[in-house]
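Per-residue structure
===
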Amino acid sequence: MWVSATGKTGVTSINSSITEPLLSPSAGQQAETKRTCLYGRASVLDLVTFSWMGPLFAIGYKKPLDKNDVPDIDERDYADLLSDSFKRILADVERRHGLSTLSIYRAMFLFIRRKAIINAVFAILCACASYVGPSLINDLVRFLGGGRKYGLKKGYILAAAFLSAKVVETVAQRQWIFGARRLGMRLRAALISHIYQKGLRLSCSARQKHTSGEIINYMSVDIQRITDVIWYTNYIWMLPIQLSLAVYVLYLNLGTGAWAGLAATLVIMACNIPLTRLQKRLQSQIMAAKDNRMKATTEVLRSMKILKLQAWDTEYLQKLEALRMEEHNWLWKSVRLTALTTFIFWGSPAFISSITFGTCILMGIPLTAGTVLSALATFRMLQDPIFTLPDLLSVFAQGKVSADRVAQYLQEEELKDDAITEVSRSDTDYDVEIDHGAFSWELETTSPTITDVNLKVKRGMKVAICGMVGSGKSSLLSCILGEMPKLAGTVRVSGSRAYVPQTAWILSGNIRDNILFGNPYDKEKYEKIIQACALTKDLELFANGDLTEIGERGINMSGGQKQRIQIARSVYEDADIYLFDDPFSAVDAHTGAQLFKDCLMGLLKDKTILYVTHQVEFLPAADLILVMQDGKIVQKGRFDDLLKQNIGFEAIVGAHSQAIDSVINAESSSRILSTESQKLADSDDEFERENDTDDQVQGIIKQESEHDVSQGVNEKGRLTQEEEREKGGIGKTVYWAYLTAVHGGALAPVIVAAQSFFQIFQVASNYWMAWACPPTSATTPRVGLGLLLSVYIMLSIGSALCVFGRSILLSLVGLLTAEKFFKNMLHCILRAPMSFFDSTPTGRILNRRYYIPTARELARLSQIQRAPILHHFAESLTGAASIRAYGQKDRFSKANISLVNNHSRPWFHNISAVEWLCFRLNMLSNFVFAFSLTLLVSLPEGFINPSIAGLAVTYALNLNGQLSSITWNICNTENKMISVERIMQYSRIPSEAPLIVDDHRPPNSWPKDGTINIRNLEVRYAEHLPSVLRNISCTIPGRKKVGIVGRTGSGKSTLIQALFRIVEPRVGTIEIDDVDLSKIGLHDLRGRLSIIPQDPTMFEGTVRGNLDPLNEYSDQHIWETLDKCQLGDIVRQSPKKLDSTVVENGENWSVGQRQLFCLGRVLLKRSNVLVLDEATASVDSSTDAIIQQTLREEFGDCTVLTVAHRIHTVIDSDLILVFSEGRIIEYDTPSRLLEDENSEFSRLIKEYSRRSKGF
C-alpha cells in the first residue's frame, strides 16, 4: 500500500551496478513497518471496547482476508525488541545467579512481570465483581416476595447494582484475558528467537544430543505450553479471592452451614492433587513419545527417496505406526484421567450443595427460596475456581515439563569462542597457524579425533588435503573453522572465511539469493562468478534464470548444480581464506577441471585456499599437500617431494595412476585398431548422432538428477508452491467427515443424549429446590426436609453419571478419530509420488497436525505463517556450520524474527477478533439481563412466584458467561476444524502405483539375465514441463557392464529414476527379461534391483539397522559384508560392534564411510541388476580401486549400470552409453567409440588424460 502511494521501494542504486539484495531481512522489515497498526493508534475507549478492530472487519466482510490485509502489531510486540529484552534479562540473571533451570525461570518471570501485574489487577477486579450478583439474590427474592415497603426505588437500585457489577466484570474479564494472550504472544516471540539463536551456537556434541525433530518440538509444542501457563497464572490470585467471597456470601445466607460448603469444596480440590501428579507423569511420557515420533517422521520425510529406491517404505511406515501407537497408549491413559477429572468437576456443585444443605437441615438452619437460590448461584460461581483448578494444575504440570525441556536445551554447551584466535591481517603473514593442535568431537574421550597438528599457511597459499576415507580431512577443516572442540595447542586465523561443505547446503529461495547470501548485488562481479562456476548454461536453461525457485534442500537440482551454486556463494563472499571440503566429487571431470582452473586458480588466485580432494589431478597445483592418516598429518610437502619420499602418498597416486593407465591403454589400443582417424558414423538408428559441437554438448546442463524442473517451472519458475489454503466457511463435508470417522458416527447421538440429560437433571434439581423451599422462614414448607434433600441428591447423582458417560465417550471418540486421521494422512503421504516431496517442504508436512486453538481466515493465516518458522529453523540447523563460517548468524536471526512477526500479526488480530465479539455479546446479555430485572421489579406484587423469578435471575447471572463461551466454542470448533481440513487435504494426495499387482507378479528368480530393453522412452517431471528424456531406445544385454556418461544434467540420473519408477514414463516402456516394469508392483520392482545412490543416506540407529533394516541376514553375513566394503576394522574398534551408534543423518561417519555403507547394503541384497549412481564420488582413489575390485568379484555375472563422473570407473565396461540433452548420442563398446576421434566419448577421454598427463 505504502509503496503504491509513495512510489518508494526502499531499494536504491549505488555505483551503477551495485544494489541491495531483493530479499534481505532489513528490506523486509522496512516493508513490514510501513503497515498501519490499528492497535497502536486506538483511544482508551477503543481499547476497552475493541472498536479499533472495526477497519479490519470492514475488509474481512467484503472479501476473504489476505496476509497483506492484516495490520501490523504494536511496536512493543516486535520480536526483535522482545528478543533483545529477554537476552538482556537472561544475561543479567546469569551474571548474578549463574546459568541453571531456575535462572531461566527467573528470567521468564522478570520478562513478563510488569504486564502480568496489570493483568492480575484486572483479574482480581473481575473476580470481586462476579460475586456481587449472588450476594444480592436473597434481597431480590425478599423484595419480590413482599418487601416493597420502600416502594420501587429499592428495586431499581438493586437492578442498577446488578448491571454495574456485570459491566465491571465484563470489562475487567475481557481485558485480563486479552492481556494474558498478548503477553503469551510476547513470551513466545522472545523464546522462539532465543531457541533459534541457541541452535546456531550449539556445539557439535550438544547438537547430536538434540535431533532437529526435538528442537523443532521445543519451538512448536513446548513454547505453546509455556505461554498457556501465563493465561492460567491469573487464576492463582483469583482462586483464593473467589473462595473467600463465596464463603462470605454463603455465611450471610446460611450462617455456620457455609463452613460445610467450604469443607466440601476443599475436599474436592484435594482429590485433584494426586490426579494432577499422575497427569504430569503422563504428560512427560506423551512428550517423550511425541519427540520420538517427530524425530522418526522428520528422518523418513528427509530420506524418502532412498526408502522408495530400496523398497523399505512399508517397513518404515510400520515403524512410524508403532511409535504413534506408543504415543496413542499414553494419550489414552491421559484422556481417561481427564474424563475422570471432568466428572468430578461437573459433579462438584451438586456434591457441595448436597453436603451444605444436608448440614443446614441437620443443624436446623432454615432454608428459604432466597437463601437456597443465593447459595446455588454461589455454588455455580464456585464451579469456576473448582473447574479451573485441575486445568490450572495440569497446565502448570505440562508447562513445567516443557519449561524444563527448554531450559535444559538453553543450558546446552555452545561452541567455544577460544577455539580459534583471530589475528589482525597487519600483524602476520600467515593466514592459518596451528601449533601442537589436538582436537576431538567428544570432549571426554581418551583418543582425540585429530592430534599433533603443526601447520603454517602463508597468505595466498594453496593447500591440498588428501588421505583415505575417514582419515580426518574434513575434521581438519572443522578445526580451522572453530567447529571442533580444542583439547590442546593454539589455532590462529587471520581474515574472513568462506566454507564449502562436502554435502551441499542450499536454502529454499531462488538461485541468486543462494549465491548472494545476504551481500549486495554487483552485476559485473556476479556474472563473472557465474561464468567461472560453469553455471551460465544451467541458468539459460531455467525458465526464470537465476530467479528460479529452488525446492527444499535444493531437491530440484542435480548434485553438481548444488555444489557449483555453493562454490559460487563462497567466491561471491570475497573472503580471505577459503575452505573447500571436496566440492569436485559431485561434478563431472570436465566441470571439475573448469572449476579448478577458473575458480581456485583464476578468480581466487590471490586468496588462501585449503581444499580437501580425492582427485589426484588437483594435487600438483598445490603449494603444500597434507597427507592425513588416522587423524594425523603423516606427510606434507609439494607434489614432487612427496613422490620421492615413497611412503604413503604414492599409494593414493598409485591407485590413480592405474586408473589413468587403464584409460590411456584403452585410448591407445583403439588408436591402433583404427587404421585411419575417420569418422565412424553408425547407420543404426539407435546410435543416431545429434549435432555434437563442443559448445552444444556443454550446454546440456539441465536441471535434472534429483528432480529436474528446469524449463517452465510453472509460469513463475517455481517448484515449491504457496501453501494451499481453503477460503470462506469450512464445508459441511469436513464436519461430517470428522463426526462419522469412528463407527460411522454411531456414538455421536449417544454423546448428545448424555449431555442433554445432564443439563435436564441439573435444571430439574435447581427447580426442585426453588419450588420446594418456602419463600420466607415464616411460610410452611411444601414437602418434608428428608424428601427435599433425597430428591435433590438423586437428581444430582443422575446429572453426574450423565456427565461421566459423556466425558468417557467424548475422549474415546476424539482419540480414535485423531488416530484414524493420522493413519490416513501418514499412509497417503508415504505412498505419495516423489514429486510431492520435491515440491513440499518438510516443515509444511510436519505442521499438519492437531494444534492449539487460535475469526477463521486469521486462524488459517496464522497456521500457514507458522510452517515457515519451523522450515527456516530446520534449514538453519542443517547449515549451522556454513552460517557461522560466513559470519551470518545475525542475518539469519533477523530472518527468523521477521518470520515470527509474520506469525504474530494474524495471531494477535485473531485473538482480538474473538475478544471484540465476546465483549459485544457480554454487553448485549448484560443489558438484556438489566431490562428483564427492571421488568420483574416493575410488575405488580404476586404477579410472579418470587422463587421462580429468583431461579430465573440465578440462571441469567450466568447468561453473559454462557453466551461468550458458546461463541468462543463455535469459533474454536471452526478453528480446530481448520486442522481437520488441512489433514484431509493431505489425505487426498494421489498415490504412486500399487506396491504389488497380484495379476502381474514376476517369478521369484526374476531378473535372471538382467537384459534391459528400453523403447521410445520419454520422461518429464510434471505435466507443464518439457521432457527430460526424449525418445530413448536401446537394449542392454544381460550380465554386461554398461557405463553411462555425459555432462552434468544430460539425463543420466533421470534414466535411473525411470528404471526404478521414481518418475513414471510419459510414453515408452522399459522391460527387464521381458517383464514390462510399468505392469508390476513397485515393491516387486524396487525390491529386486539394487542401487548405490548419489547421496549416501544413513538413518539414526545402529550400524546393523542401517545395513539390514528388515532383519533378513545373520550377523556373520553382515560382518563379511563390512569387511568387503572396508568398514570391518572400523566397526570392530567400537565397543558396541554392530550396535555402534549412527546419529541423525549419519553425521558421526564421514561422507566416504556413508558411501561404503551404501555399498554394503547392495552386497547384502545381491540383485542381478545393480545401478551405481556416481557411487564412489566421495572416496579417495585407492578406496575407489578396492570398491571397483569388490564389485567386479561380487557382481561379475550381473548387469551393472554405472553412472560415472570419473571416466576410469567405466573404461573397462562392456558398453558405453553417452547422453546429451536427454538423448542417447553414442552407444557402443569403448574401443569402437575410441576409434572415432570425433566421438563425444573420445573427447571425454582426451580431456581426462590431458588433465592427468602430469603423472
